[in-house]
Amino acid sequence: MFSSPWSMAKGMQANAAAHAAELLASADIGFRRADAAVPVVSYTTHSVGRNALGMGSACPFETDELVVAAAAPVFTQAECCAVVDEARSLIAEGARSRFTMTDTNRDVAVEDMPKTLAWLNNGAFARLTSLAAACYPGVVDDATDLWVYRALVINYDHSAQLTHQPIHRDHSLISCVVPLSERREYSGGGTFIEPLGRAIALEQGCALLHPSAVRHAGHRITAGERWVLVLFLNTLAREVTEESDHEIWYDLGTRAHELGVPEEALWNYERAEALNPRDSLLLTNMGVALAELGQPRRAFVAYRRALAIDPYNVNARLSAGELLLKARRLRGLEVLLAEAPVESLAADVGLQRLRAKLAPGDPHCIASNEMRIRD
Ligand SMILES: O=C(O)CCC(=O)C(=O)O
Ligand SMILES: [Fe+2]
């Protein structure tokens, strides 16, 4: 049955909303995107055919060389052991992720592993995202675009009959599996890739990347213990180019703002910002909402960011100036006004009024409450 265009549009909006919320949730639970790309290790690829993904015309992958195996370790032995040590002690204390529902292995969420999380955020993640950007150029524009939807450390333990993971697809764009155990610590194992009809078992620290939509499994181990780090990755690129998704949140934000509900406005603005952090007007509105919510410092930062993107943004300059005036930071106000492009200062009475307050002996040092919302 075909859906009507109306319900299709609604569905797309709901998707965009869910996607933006997941991106925020990723940052909330502690994952950071890579700061910059780093050099990548050599790798080999395996062809699986895009039709195996079941993504139809929405498939963003442009070649069939979609399963990628690093030919050298991305993580050192010491790094792998440190991750296993942290996971092992947490699992011994009873920690379990709430993410997978299978009882054929044990796992712990990386967000519950402070040392591993910090290690990933401080450069280890960039090694994986740089590899992904090199392997999937049509999908990942830049190593800094990838974000972690979820990450787990998984333990397969033959003596406890925790030997495998059934065939499945993951709920992300690209999945990344890094064996943390040495190859000699277990028999069998590896990641079974259904369209290849076989499992790929890499050496310790070597990453295996594949589209999350490829059907795959944690292949059965027949002896020993196998630990892996699994990351489910999505990319920003789609959101940033989908200007309409950003506009949806922006419009919902301004509507709430005009109705006098700044908390809700800010909630929506933050979602718009997650999709496009370089919208000067949006940042100004965020500043206004923050100021209304009694957070002048954060408001000031938002105005400053808005001005860094667009120095001609008069509302941002005026609102920032009013905050400075209220806090009696007249030197700061002077700098702010001195930085204004001459034309914008000449054309705006509000800015001129602010400048007049800097005049020596001016008794009026009380800011106006006027803050402008752009619709
Ligand atoms: O153990 C593996 O190699 C695969 C793990 C996996 O597919 C998953 O955790 O989603
Ligand atoms: Fe998986």
UniProtKB/TrEMBL annotation:
It comes from the Eukaryota. Signal peptide: none annotated. InterPro entries: Oxoglu/Fe-dep_dioxygenase_dom, Pro_4_hyd_alph, TPR-like_helical_dom_sf, TPR_rpt. Residues 147-235 form the Fe2OG dioxygenase domain. The keyword Disulfide bond does not apply. TPR repeats lie at residues 246-279, 280-313. GO terms for molecular function: dioxygenase activity; iron ion binding; L-ascorbic acid binding; oxidoreductase activity, acting on paired donors, with incorporation or reduction of molecular oxygen. Its cofactor is L-ascorbate. Gene3D superfamilies: q2cbj1_9rhob like domain, Tetratricopeptide repeat domain. Keywords: Dioxygenase, Endoplasmic reticulum, Glycoprotein, Iron, Metal-binding, Oxidoreductase, TPR repeat. Coiled coil: none annotated. SUPFAM superfamilies: TPR-like. This is Fe2OG dioxygenase domain-containing protein. It comes from Chrysochromulina tobinii.
